[in-house]
Design brief:
Layout lengths: L12 H6 L5 H13 L1 H12 L10 E2 L7 E2 L7 H14 L3 E6 L5 E5 H17 L7 E4 L5 H13 L2 E4 L6 H11 L3 E5 L2 E3 L2 E3 L1 H9 L9 E5 L13 E4 L2
Helix pairs in contact: 2-3, 4-5, 4-6, 5-6, 7-8
Length: 240
């Protein structure tokens, strides 16, 4: 196709009005600003679009190029920027997640609800001794709880590793051993294709294998209410 044959499909006026960059004129203006002074441009974006716990004073360190460092003396919290920032802006009742379960049931979770659930789990992790720099394994099916788990880890500075809920006990064990996870977040079971899959039983099997001594606690979300084995000194229900 030649340049003369190029077809451009313009977005609707309503879509452009609600967009952060409303049309090509606005885009070209931003691009020109970035070309003129890229440090000043990204500093403005960072200050306007993010909330900083400790504001940065240095935008870019290019002394070890190509290993650039941006905003290296500033600190922020990813969970705060995802959730609290929205609530503080008056968007607490806006829907953050629309989740359709295996049975077709649709759940809508607002930013305020997601923040409350994230804080509860973050406090539960701290109560179990999880601290900044610790690794947490998340072994869940696709769910709102999976998002809450990731947000909770980010909130307290723990590093999360998401492990596919269809992996075997051996595969789960390998990932726990590789990361040195101190805690596992899972569910009693997950639903997929109308079948109940035993997540907690697979976690129990994995932790019985060599290499998982780093795990001190398992937090369990009650998804189906199915019968599971229980270790009173290690396992903890996640309150809903």
């Amino acid at each position: 196709m030649s340049e003369s044959d190029t077809v451009v499909y313009q977005p609707s006026a309503a879509a452009m009005k609600g967009a952060h960059v409303s049309g090509m004129d606005a885009y070209r203006k931003l691009a020109a600003e970035a070309d003129a002074d890229h440090e000043a441009f990204w500093a403005r974006q960072a200050r306007e679009l993010l909330s900083w716990k400790k504001p940065f004073t240095k935008v870019l360190d290019a002394s070890a190029a190509p290993f650039y460092k941006w905003f290296e003396d500033g600190t922020l919290n990813a969970s705060y920027n995802c959730l609290d920032r929205q609530v503080d802006a008056g968007l607490g009742d806006k829907v953050a997640i629309i989740f359709e379960a295996d049975d077709g049931k649709v759940t809508r979770v607002t930013y305020r609800e997601l923040l409350e659930r994230t804080c509860r789990l973050a406090n539960a992790l701290k109560a179990r001794g999880v601290k900044k720099g610790d690794r947490v394994a998340i072994y869940l099916g696709m769910s709102v709880e999976g998002v809450v788990a990731m947000q909770a880890c980010a909130r307290i500075g723990a590093t999360h590793t998401v492990i596919f809920g269809g992996f075997s006990a051996q595969s789960l064990r390998d990932r726990i051993a590789d990361t040195g996870a101190v805690l596992v977040i899972t569910a009693d079971e997950q639903l997929r294709g109308g079948k109940q899959l035993p997540l907690k039983a697979i976690v129990d099997e994995a932790l019985a294998l060599d290499g998982c001594a780093s795990v001190k606690d398992v937090i369990v979300y009650r998804r189906t209410g199915g019968k599971i084995a229980w270790n009173d000194t290690r396992d903890h229900w996640l309150a809903r």
